[in-house]
Amino acid sequence: MSSMKSGSTSLPSAPSSAFKLPPQSVIFHPDFLSVLGATPSICVIASRPGSAFAHEAPIWVKETDEVFFASKGPGGSASETSDANLNTQVSKISLKEVETALQAAGSSAAPVNVTVTKMTNGGTGPFRGSLVLVNSGRGPLPPSVALVDPKPPYSTTILLDNFFGRQFNSLNDVKIHPGSGALFFTDPPYGFLNKFKGPPAMPSQVYRLDPETRSVRVVADQFDKCNGIAFSQDGKSVFVTDTGAWHGAGVGINPVEPTTIYKYDVDPATQAFTNRRVFAYADAGIPDGIQLDIKGNVYSGCGDGVHVWSPDGTLIGKFFLGKVSANMTFAGKGRLVILAESEVYLAQIAAEGFDLSFP
């Protein structure tokens, strides 16, 4: 296990791309020291060079100490949008086995062959014992919200696959509201931009789904491309990333468009998102998946690793990987599992996430 190198507590004069020898911690503010703790470390716990097997939908299952996650979906030409055989792969890694494996040659992630519609991109939970996965759909197959048993044979129940008869664009991320247990998910047009879905039929919006009644409604709009979502521990605030700058594979980033995290209040009666304000702007890549720790610090996967902001929106540090991280999840106290496409990292730090499951 390699130790993370701590940077200066003053603002570096060089851009993020100038830092060498990743992975390492880069400290922008002394508050990041309380995130790292006295003996932080980071190491690769699974690797498949050339394969984006560890992309999104990280879910920690406390009972088995396993982390589930999904691969990146295949890109393609417009002619491939009707190919129902193309899909993502959901995998899992046992953190119980990681410590033993790290003493030897390393660890690996095992495919679990979860059957969902097409193109899993977001995940959270567990919700009443099941994983919550959102799927982008592919070709004519609709995007959907699904519950998946984390135990073999990974039985799947589709909760929702339309908005009053209209297909969603390509569902991206999902979180459970801590108080009510309602499911909130984002729906940007990335299926169309990455050429595996048709043109968007609705704006980029955030939706609320009541898992009991299956009632669904819009709770926030006016995004370019809403992406990651995360609630505060008390459920009174919510953070949504807008990755409007990213225009899809082969196009890249337009630097004058949003790479922004917005913060909202959650209306206590309707759970609509209100009082929108800018929380932070990502300086490298786009702020994709997003998580919070128990102190209210905000973590987001960006173009060079994981960025960490204090509750007031100050960038306090980075887990600098030198590569894109789309998402991450806390796996109990002091463990942050970071997905970086061809690698999975385990950061052992002082920070602690709160329980994202719902009983």
UniProtKB/TrEMBL annotation:
<dbReference type="Pfam" id="PF08450">
    <property type="entry name" value="SGL"/>
</dbReference>
<dbReference type="InterPro" id="IPR052988">
    <property type="entry name" value="Oryzine_lactonohydrolase"/>
</dbReference>
<dbReference type="InterPro" id="IPR011042">
    <property type="entry name" value="6-blade_b-propeller_TolB-like"/>
</dbReference>
<dbReference type="InterPro" id="IPR013658">
    <property type="entry name" value="SGL"/>
</dbReference>
<protein>
    <recommendedName>
        <fullName>SMP-30/Gluconolactonase/LRE-like region domain-containing protein</fullName>
    </recommendedName>
</protein>
<feature type="domain" description="SMP-30/Gluconolactonase/LRE-like region">
    <location>
        <begin position="146"/>
        <end position="334"/>
    </location>
</feature>
